[in-house]
Amino acid sequence: MNRMLGVFQRWPFAFAMLLCAVLLAVNLIVSPSFVSPGRLGATLATLAPFVLVGFAATPAILAGGIDISVGPLATLINCIFIAVLIPAGLGGWHLAVPLLLGIAMAVGALNGVLVAVVRLHPVVATTGVLFLLIGASLTVAKNPVNAPDNWTRPLAGSIGVVPGAFLTLGAAALVWFLLKRTAFVSNMLATGESDSSAYGSGVNVTVVRILSYTLGGLFAGIAGIALSALMQATGSSLATTYALLGLAAAVLGGATLGGGRGGLLGTFFGAVAIYLLQQLLTSAGVQPNLIEFTYGLLLIFGVVLGATLLRPRVTRRTA
What we know:
By secondary structure, the chain is mostly helical. It has helices at 2-10, 14-30, 37-62, 70-85, 93-116, 122-140, 165-180, 184-193, 195-200, 205-231, 239-252, 264-283, 288-307, and strands at residues 158-159, 162-163. The chain has a two-stranded antiparallel sheet with strand order 1-2. It is globular.
């Protein structure tokens, strides 16, 4: 027991990975065709927004903050693409992708400025932005708008033999991989663990925090594209659901809300675990409102787990 606990404390993603394995086994028992090759593309397309919104919530947490606006930001990007850009003739990928990601990163940077420069509490700042984004989504697409045929459709299926979701998930993973080869990720973790110590080591804490929220905005923009591919319609009503999902995936994957611990790998397993649980509950006939209740329980469970059992023990030395 102590050895297993030590593994969980050393690798924050291990618990979520184990939970994924258990839930996958149960899903296969309930529905043996769950991961059949014919359903793989559609399954990954449904999973992609879960994972990407979790990715979007992670950088702010690692830097010692929190961003609860990433879910509404993803739905706003979805609404802008389908209800604004496509009707305006700007729906081609070479125009839409830079515009959508630029908007998402600008919103992320705004959150970063409010937190790091204006010095608002992260919950207050991102809650205010959350309501602004929800209002903007409802203004852009008060009623559901169906998308005409567009370049995102293959992202919800397969491009040749490759599942289209690999492109959206792979883009975010590539960004993170490249950033890990720089000092940015280590500076972000150092800032989250102790901003005063990081500052004393020469880290520009303000810039790191702004860039962390900006990176979250980038991932939320990719999530909005993945959501558009999946729904082929506007989904402004999903804003609050995805706000909760992002945080739940990050904390279940081992990210500590105090900052300084976690990563995208853990968030990935956390999001997959939530998706597998959702599929299991849906197969069992559980009502959608109770499934959202389960998301809240998972968020609480992840926070408590990270603050107690999975928190590395600090050995105090006495003189």
